[in-house]
C-alpha cells in the first residue's frame, strides 16, 4: 500500500474515476484512485470492448460536455496505434426531430446531414429504414477497455496511484479534510471525488442525493448474416413504444458482432447480488428480425451490465463540503467521460467551481 495521505483521492476505478484522476494529473496533482474490485472486473458499468460515441444531443449542457469530452479523447492519443474514438459514424432515426438535432450539431461545427430512407438503405444494407435519417460522421464508438488501460497508464506515469481491490468502508469529513477508512488503515485527503457508480448512495448516506436506480441491462451481440452486411454504423432508433419497450441503440464491436439493446429497461438490482438474468430477449430478437435483416436474430450473445440512473437520466456533478460527487451516468455516460473528468477535477480543486445548472444537486 502507498502513502496514507493525498491531496485528492478518487473513489471508483471505472472510466469516470480514472478520467478524473487523469485530468488531475494534467494539472500537476498526484491523485490516489481507490477501487474495490480488481482491474478489468465486470461488476460495474465500464467493462467491455466498445461504448457508443453518440453525439445526437440537443441540450446545451450535454453539447458543452460533449465538446469538452471530444478534446479529452483526442488528447489521449492512439494507444496501440489506433485512436480511442473509432469514428465510423452514427445514424439516428424514428420518432425524433432529426432536423432540430442536426441544427444544434451544426451550431457546434459537428458534421451532420439528413439522408432519405433510400440512401440510408443503400449505404447500410443490413438495416431497414422507413423515413429520413440523421447521419453524423463524427461519431461511432469509444474503445472502452483500451481507454481504461490508457487512463491508468497516464495516471501512474504522472505520479498518481491506482489501488485495485481497495474498498472504502467509510468517509468521514471534518474541518481539516476527509478520512477514508480502508481495509488496512486510513487515508487522509483534502478532497475526495466519489465516482462509485452503483455503490454511490451507500457511500454517501450523509449527502442528500436524488434517487439512483441500479438496474441490470442485457443488450446482446448479433452476428452479421454475410460479409456484404459488414458495414455498420452506430445507431439510435426511436421506436414505437407501443411495440417495443424503449429506444434501441447499438454499434459494431469487431470480433463480437453488432451490439443491439433497449435503453434502460432492466430490472432493479442490488449491485452486490446481481442475478445476471437476461430480460427482454424475445422482444429484442423480434426487433432485430424486423429492423436489421443483415443480422441473424437467433445468434444473440447477451451481455450483462449495470445502469445507475437518476429519474430523468441527468448526470450529477456537484460538490458538498470536501466531497465531490459524480453519479447517474449509466446508459449514456461513457462517451462523456473525459469531459466529466474535467468537470469533477474543476470541482475538486476549486470549492467555488460549479457544473452546469442541470447537473447540480438540488
β content, as a range? 25-35%
Which class best fits the helix and strand makeup? alpha+beta
Gyration radius over CA? 20 Å
Please give the count of helices: 8
Shape label:
globular
Outline the low-pLDDT stretches. Answer: none
End-to-end Cα distance: 37 Å
Oligomer: single chain
Helix content: 10-25%
Series of secondary-structure elements, N-terminal to C-terminal: EHEEHEEHEHEEHEEEEHEEEEEEHEEEEH
Number of strands: 22
Largest sheet: 8 strands, mixed
Overall pLDDT confidence: 95
Detailed description of the structure:
- 24% of the residues lie in helices and 28% in strands.
- The chain is α+β, with helices and mostly antiparallel strands and 362 residues long.
- A hairpin with a 2-residue loop joins strand 10 and strand 11.
- Helix 1 packs parallel to helix 5 (144-157) and helix 2 packs across helix 8 (337-349).
- The chain starts with a strand and ends in a 13-residue tail after the last helix.
- The mean pLDDT is 95.
List keywords for this structure.
362 residues; eight-stranded mixed sheet; alpha+beta; single chain
What are the SSEs and their pairings?
Elements: E1 5-11, H1 15-26, E2 32-34, E3 50-53, H2 60-75, E4 85-86, E5 90-94, H3 98-107, E6 113-115, H4 117-123, E7 133-136, E8 140-143, H5 144-157, E9 161-163, E10 170-174, E11 177-182, E12 185-194, H6 200-203, E13 213-217, E14 220-222, E15 234-238, E16 248-253, E17 257-262, E18 267-268, H7 281-291, E19 301-302, E20 305-309, E21 316-320, E22 323-327, H8 337-349
Helix pairs in contact: 1-5, 1-8, 2-8
In short:
By secondary structure, the protein is α+β, with helices and mostly antiparallel strands.
Amino acid at each position: 500500500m502507498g502513502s496514507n495521505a493525498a491531496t485528492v483521492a478518487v473513489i471508483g476505478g471505472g472510466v469516470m474515476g480514472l478520467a478524473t484522476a487523469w485530468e488531475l494529473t494534467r494539472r500537476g496533482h498526484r491523485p490516489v484512485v481507490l477501487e474495490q474490485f480488481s482491474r478489468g472486473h465486470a461488476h460495474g458499468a465500464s467493462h467491455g470492448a466498445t461504448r457508443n460515441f453518440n453525439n445526437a444531443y440537443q441540450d446545451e449542457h450535454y453539447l458543452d460536455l460533449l465538446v469538452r469530452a471530444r478534446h479529452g479523447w483526442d488528447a489521449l492519443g492512439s494507444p496501440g496505434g489506433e485512436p480511442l474514438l473509432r469514428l465510423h459514424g452514427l445514424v439516428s432515426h424514428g420518432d425524433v426531430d432529426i432536423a432540430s438535432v442536426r441544427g444544434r450539431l451544426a451550431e457546434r461545427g459537428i458534421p451532420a446531414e439528413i439522408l432519405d430512407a433510400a440512401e440510408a438503405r443503400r449505404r447500410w444494407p443490413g438495416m431497414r429504414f422507413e423515413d429520413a435519417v440523421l447521419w453524423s460522421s463524427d461519431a461511432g464508438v469509444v474503445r472502452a477497455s483500451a481507454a481504461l488501460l490508457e487512463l491508468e497508464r497516464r495516471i501512474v506515469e504522472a505520479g498518481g496511484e491506482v489501488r485495485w481491490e481497495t474498498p472504502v468502508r467509510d468517509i468521514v469529513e471534518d474541518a481539516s479534510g476527509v478520512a477514508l477508512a480502508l481495509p488496512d488503515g486510513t487515508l487522509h485527503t483534502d478532497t475526495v471525488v466519489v465516482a462509485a457508480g452503483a455503490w454511490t448512495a451507500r457511500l454517501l448516506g450523509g449527502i442528500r442525493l436524488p434517487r439512483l436506480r441500479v438496474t441490470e441491462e442485457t443488450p446482446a451481440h448479433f452476428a452479421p448474416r454475410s460479409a456484404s452486411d459488414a458495414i455498420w454504423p452506430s445507431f439510435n432508433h426511436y421506436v414505437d413504444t407501443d411495440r417495443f419497450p424503449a429506444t434501441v441503440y447499438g454499434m459494431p464491436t469487431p470480433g463480437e458482432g453488432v451490439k443491439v439493446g433497449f435503453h434502460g429497461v432492466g430490472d432493479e438490482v442490488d449491485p452486490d447480488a446481481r442475478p445476471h438474468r437476461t430480460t427482454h430477449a424475445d422482444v429484442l430478437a423480434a426487433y432485430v428480425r424486423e429492423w436489421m435483416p443483415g443480422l441473424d436474430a437467433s445468434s444473440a450473445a447477451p451481455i450483462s451490465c449495470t445502469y445507475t440512473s437518476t429519474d430523468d437520466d441527468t448526470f450529477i456533478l456537484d460538490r458538498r463540503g470536501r466531497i465531490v460527487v459524480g453519479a447517474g451516468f449509466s446508459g449514456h455516460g461513457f462517451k462523456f467521460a473525459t469531459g466529466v473528468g474535467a468537470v469533477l477535477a474543476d470541482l475538486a480543486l476549486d470549492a467555488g467551481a460549479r457544473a452546469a445548472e442541470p447537473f447540480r444537486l438540488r
